[in-house]
Each structure stands twice: as structure tokens, then as C-alpha cells.
Amino acid sequence: METFLSGKEPVRVERYEPAGAGPHPALLMAHGSGGPVSYCLNRLGPQLAAFGVGVHAPHYFDKTHTSRAAAEVILDGQHFPEWLRALEDAVSDLRARPGVDARRIGVLGVSLGAYLSVALGIGDPNMRLVIELSGGIPPGWEERVSPATPPVLLLHGVQDAVVPVSEAYKLQRLLTERGARCQAEIFPHENHWISAHALPKLVMSAVNSSGNTYKFVFSCARSRPNASPENFHYLWMDNSCFGRPGVTNC
Questions:
Q1: Handedness of CA 22, 15, 234, 44 (dihedral sign)
Q2: Which of 32, 135, 205, 250 pairs with 83 at a CA distance of 20 to 30 A?
């Protein structure tokens, strides 16, 4: 398994990469508090790689030699910044990786990883997109949100008993009030542990213009050669209309 350095600590990373030389867009995947890197990666990686997008899942707990994070560890004020630093270093590693288009890097985070992904995006305006699943805004980060924050897609289940759906609504309201682009997809029958059957469907709906989430992105790409819902690259090529109500053409 490949590694990169975060400070002096080697951090393992698992990948699904598209065929061909590239450069390809890349999606960083941040796991939850249980550290199950393979759970989402193995369900989503092959499908996304088939669309020409590399998926890269760092074991960011390696930074702190953590195997599983309880609430007291997450909130102790020490581990979260270290994990965030590991993800920042993962992005730097990706931007320098042959075959990766450094202009088209996004992040998908699940649960704890969603909170980290939101923080990562707030701190890096060059991030192409943030997809947060079953998370919210990290405490203390509210004032850092600005119009420069990358577009954020919020995915949450109404039945979530671990991170209540109110966290998604709170983040959506904050992003909107502070001028950042965002959209939310709330799923009435899903809980925190998005079902294995639903997970690919949820994320693919987020990147397919047949749904509502990225219709603005694809409307901007319509004039480009070969633009279609099946051409995933357009998600990463133009997000200038993302989350702007009433925008149907640009």
C-alpha cells in the first residue's frame, strides 16, 4: 500500500484510479470515526473510476496512531487538527501526483470525515468541491465560512440518530447566509449508516445531471463537446453556477 508523509508520520492511502494517462480529476475520501476506509471506498471507487475520476482514501488516523475515535477523542482539541493536517497533506500529495489534474480535486467525507472535509474546504478555496455525508460544520469554524468556500453538497438521512439531520440544515443555513454555494439532498428513509444499496445511488445522484443537484453545472457545460450526464468530467470543469437558485443557463 502506498504512503505519503504528514510531518514525520507515514500515512497509508488506498486508491482507485482511472485507466489512461490522464490528467484525471480526483476525489479524496475521508472515512468516519470507526476508521473503515474500505467500506465506502470499495463501494464507490470502482464506479467513480469508471467515470474517469480517481478516488483516494487516506488512513488519516495513522497521523495519531488511532484505530477508532470515540467522542472524547474527537472533541479533545488535539486529534481533530492533526487529522485535518493529514488530509491537507493528502491533498498536497494528490496535487503532485502524476496523472491527477491538480485543478480538479474534491473531497467526500463521511460522518467525522464529513466534518473534516468541510473544514478542509473552508481552509482551501482551491478545492473543487466538498461532498459531506452525515456530518456538519465543526464547532468554532462558523466564522471562517466565506464566499470563497468551495461549493458544498450536503447529503443526510432524516433517520440519522448519530448526527441529527439538524446539523445538515444548520450547515446549509450558515453557508447560504455567508455567501457560499451549497445544495442539500435529504433522504427521508436513510439513517447515519447509509445503506450499502443506497450509498452508490446517493453519491451518483450527486454527480449526475438527471437529478437536481448538479443541473446548474451541466447547464453551464452544455455548449462543450460531448457534454452529457454520463460525462463526469464536467462536474469538475465548471461549478460557476453551483447552488445559485434560478440559474438555468450561463
A1: positive
A2: 205
Which are the contacts of 157, defined by CB distance < 8 A and separation ≥ 6? Answer: 134, 165, 186, 187, 188, 189, 190, 191, 192, 194
Cell of 174: 450558515
SS3 call for 117: helix
Strand order in the sheet with 100-110: 2-6, 9-16, 54-58, 24-30, 100-110, 129-133, 152-157, 182-187
User: Cα separation of 4 and 213, whole Å?
Assistant: 33
Coil, strand or helix at 194 = coil
Grid cell in block for residue 101: 489534474
pLDDT of residue 174 exceeding 80, the answer is yes
Please provide residue 11's backbone torsions phi and psi, each rounded to the nearest 5 degrees.
-120, 125
3-state DSSP assignment of residue 106: strand
Q: Any idea which residue has 495519531 for its cell?
A: 64
At 19 the three-state DSSP class reads coil
